[in-house]
Amino acid sequence: MTFSPSVHGIFHQATSTMTYLITDPSTKQTIILDSVLDYDSSSGCSSNEHNESVVSYIEQHGLDVKYILESHVHADHLTGAQYLKEKYPNAQTGIGANVTIVQETFSKIFNYIESDLKTDGSQFDLLFRDGDTFPLGNEKVSVIHTPGHTPACVCYVVGDAVFTGDTIFMPDFGTARCDFPGGSSGDLYASVRKLYDTLPEETRVYVGHDYQPGGRELLFQSSIGEEKKSNKQLRDDTSGDEFAKWRSERDGQLGMPKLILPSLQVNLRNGKWPEAEGNGVVYLKVPVNLLGKK
């Protein structure tokens, strides 16, 4: 019988992000996936309301946090990994091994020197490659490398569920954008095909964001079968050329995410701020006329 993890999603309204608590019910060992640090870009102030709601649920249910994981280096919100690591110091942090590619790319964009940002992924305890497994209680979690949105994207398969990050969303929204540095519609097509071709149709799909198109209610769970049948951008019968054309046209209409600059500078460091300057204040960089539409 296929293992069925307990899944609790906590929605971060400001960034439309889902944080997941994924638990082996028999041991209560738990993964925190895609946490969020509240951040106000106008004032530069951060807070932990969302993280505190995660901690409250964990404490109420007596969960044993073993991992604090990322599906990729997020460009639309700041990770809350460091706050949670302080709460659960024995938990291991992790991300896809190709985070090093993303670090190298954005180290150049932000004009960092080596002392500003190491590009070896050492900020994370675990770097996952395609096919890697790791224990969760009495079960195993499998990692699927799913590049396209970013080179470091991974999906986590936990029993009868897959957590897709920004690879695919609910069927009425489609897939992730592919126009960030290192993104590729061809890679994303191959990644989604990998999910469609290797996972059973009844596999539960938990998405990384829900943008509630048309003002509909919040939804964050579908299935591989539902995605193959009705994903508006990439159904089972969608060709690679069709997807690439549609994705290119759509991405050409999108602006940069509101929080992309602060998010990357923090998330590349696994949630740590850059070093404070001599006055004790942390500063973030803004590259002028480098990213986005010109």
Automatic annotation (TrEMBL):
Domain Metallo-beta-lactamase: from-to ranges:
16-209
UniProt key word Transmembrane = no
**UniProt keyword list:** Metal-binding
Q: Which InterPro entries match?
A: Metallo-B-lactamas (IPR001279), Mito_Persulfide_Diox (IPR051682), POD-like_MBL-fold (IPR044528), RibonucZ/Hydroxyglut_hydro (IPR036866)
GO MF entries:
metal ion binding
One Pfam family linked to the record: Lactamase_B
Q: Which residues form the signal peptide?
A: none
Cell membrane as UniProt keyword: no
Which CDD domains would you find in this protein's record? POD-like_MBL-fold
Cross-referenced PANTHER family, in alphabetical order?
A: PERSULFIDE DIOXYGENASE ETHE1 (PTHR43084), PERSULFIDE DIOXYGENASE ETHE1, MITOCHONDRIAL (PTHR43084:SF1)
The protein depicted here goes by the name: Metallo-beta-lactamase domain-containing protein
Species the sequence originates in? Cyclotella atomus
